[in-house]
Amino acid sequence: MKDLKAKIHAVVHERKDPSIKPAYGENTSTVRLLGCIPKGKATLKAWFNNVSYTMGEVAYVKADISNDSKRDIGSMNTVLMREIIIRGRGFNNRHTIKGEVLKNKYPGVKALEKSEQDLPLQLNVAQPTANGNLISCRYWLDIECDISFAPDIEVHMPVEIFAPQPEVSGVILEGWEGALPWQA
């Protein structure tokens, strides 16, 4: 007689880590027309409303822009970036896939004005953040103040995106009436 065997595919979901702090980024830069004529300073401060997110959730980024320059910030752009690293058995066997996942454009800020904006970001991604030995996947958000004829002001912030946690299911036999499912 042979032993009974069963095969089940398991999916391991990384849980949200409560020790993760919300990402914050800040950049102050001198706005230079054509890269050499100074026109004042601009400051971009940005932070997430939450520590981490679940796939499909909307992340709200708060952006505090202080445009003390004589140039308009034409638009605020957000780009969600993803990097997947696949490693082989050796340290040198490594393949990296990097690219844009999502791009949004928001209104800019006039010269010599300040603005605080909410930048909503729909996190419809295919893979959650992962930190495995063979496969890792990380996300970050690039926030750019687009200034025409001048270098952009940028802030880069990491984003933790987790898979939805499965609901715990099981057979509860307490109060069960009738035949069990495998006895029917």
From TrEMBL:
Transmembrane segments: none annotated. Residues 38-166 form the Arrestin C-terminal-like domain. It comes from the Eukaryota. This is Arrestin C-terminal-like domain-containing protein. It comes from Palpitomonas bilix. The lineage of its organism: Eukaryota, Eukaryota incertae sedis.
